[in-house]
Amino acid sequence: MIQWSRFRTSDGRLGFGVIVDERIVECDGDFYTGPRPTAVSFALDEVTLLSPCTPSKIVALWNNFHALAAKLAKPVPRHPLFLIKPGSSVAGPGEAITRPAGYGGKIAFEGELGIVIGKPCKDVAESEAADYILGYTCVNDVTARDLQTKDGQWSRAKGFDTFCPVGPLVTDEIDPWKGVAVGVRVNNDVRQDGNTRDFIFALDVVIRHIAQAMTLFPGDLIATGTPSGVSPIVAGDVVEVSVAGVGVLRNLVADE
Amino acid sequence: MIQWSRFRTSDGRLGFGVIVDERIVECDGDFYTGPRPTAVSFALDEVTLLSPCTPSKIVALWNNFHALAAKLAKPVPRHPLFLIKPGSSVAGPGEAITRPAGYGGKIAFEGELGIVIGKPCKDVAESEAADYILGYTCVNDVTARDLQTKDGQWSRAKGFDTFCPVGPLVTDEIDPWKGVAVGVRVNNDVRQDGNTRDFIFALDVVIRHIAQAMTLFPGDLIATGTPSGVSPIVAGDVVEVSVAGVGVLRNLVADE
After folding, report:
1. All domains of chain A, ordered by start, with CATH?
2. Contact B81/A151, CB-based, under 8 Å?
3. What is the DSSP-derived secondary structure letter of residue B178?
4. pTM of the entire structure?
5. pLDDT averaged over every residue in chain B
6. Which pLDDT score, from 0 to 100, does residue A30 have?
7. Among A167, A232, B99, B188, which residue is least crowded by beta carbons within 10 Å?
8. A153: nearest CA partner in chain B
9. Residues B184-205: pLDDT tens digits?
């Protein structure tokens, strides 16, 4: 049972560490294969938390909640459906979600549970899929709604810089198979209030399906789909994605 | 005027270098900011050429040739259309394009000119876009055709491991604005025979449009769209993508 994050110190140095008793204990070595705690630690409010991973790709599921599929009158898919968000779209906790230059349309939040992959993963059985999970985090799959239909492919609508806030930490202390609450508040109003019990595809099925297509690397992120309740956000809004047992990912929306 | 590639020596060491008089002169330093030639060189047939870049993302255009849009009766788009192929889909010259496990449908080649980005690129003017190009290469945007329609989003159909052969080298010795031949042969039969003169969007427009959405990093790859003539390939086929002035990217198709 462990919690990890990446951080920047007040003098601009980057580090990573494990969170123990509200302090972050800096580690050296490789984050995925052998982090070694050092004697250095910081209070959480002494450092700026960064996205806890720097994914080479984000695999984002869509149509993975029964209630949302029913609401949108979409058929339940026969296998997990996904698209790729680029690593360049990642934002850290507290970082602004920035409206793209030249885009005046709607921007929507989509609160999701994120899976952080811990080791290279290709062609794995469902029974082994959980072994490749380092832990879980919160993800906001921000979307330029007007471009989704217009472009046809969603890579641009979901791929803008800052359109994938991730954090504030990664933990292995939750069990999404047993049901974990996933929610979003905007300016403190509840907008999404889902639970992983409503997943169309369990996470072992999801990982097997994705890893049948492509190699997942340590730090790669799977955004597991959003429950119902997505709606637009505008400059000045504070969006909070929460996953029970993980924490709250808070980001301000800003104009260009 | 220069040609670069990455390679693996016969004893398994990885390196990169510049190609001079049919030999590859190994470099050290950073490939993008300051490669320094060493005294070591190899004949091209002494080493295995690898994909000349290891992109963090591949931005793949679709519907960027007038003749193909006309043939498919697709309207000419008002701006470049693209999707993301993950870096994990890259294959080197000579590497097999492998049929995904459990997929029995059609696989198609799509020969394309590739742009390799040389420095971080975001929000650039069209007049400056060419400054961010390191050089050009050949790309095969391999596609599991049956999944493209079925999934809706094309990330899986175009994102399988080995579905993005790249190479054999990067060169700045061609000028796609003036017209460069882009073709494909399968088992020595000509299947595609296009020219960048038929692009719907010139490359400065393409780069400005993509970099308005997302930061491009050194080594990122833009696949600039395929001309008409795409067709299925099967195990045993030899697919050769050629870009005039770059060379020939040759890959065998293999069953799982």
Report:
1. 3-50 (2.30.30.370), 57-254 (3.90.850.10)
2. yes
3. G
4. 0.96
5. 96
6. 86
7. B188
8. B153
9. 999 999 999 999 999 999 999 9
- Closest CA relative to residue A163, chosen from A89, A94, A111, A52: A89
**Å from A108 to nearest chain B CA?**
16
Q: Is the pLDDT of residue A189 over 80?
A: yes
Report the alpha-carbon distance of residue A238 to residue B18 in Å, rounded. Answer: 50
What mean pLDDT is predicted for residues A131-139? 97
CB within 8 Å: B153 and A156: no
Look at residues B89, B97, B120, B80 and name the one whose alpha carbon lies nearest to residue B201.
B80
Compute the half-sphere exposure of residue B189: CA atoms within 13 Å on the CB side of its CA. Answer: 8
Q: How far, in Å, CA of B215 to CA of A101, rounded?
A: 13
Q: Which residues of A touch B213 (CB under 8 A)?
A: 100, 156, 159-161
Question: Is residue A12 over pLDDT 80?
Answer: yes
Alpha helices in chain B (DSSP H): 66-71, 145-151, 203-213
CB–CB of A77/A200 below 8 Å? yes
pLDDT band at B177 (very low <50, low <70, confident <90, very high): very high
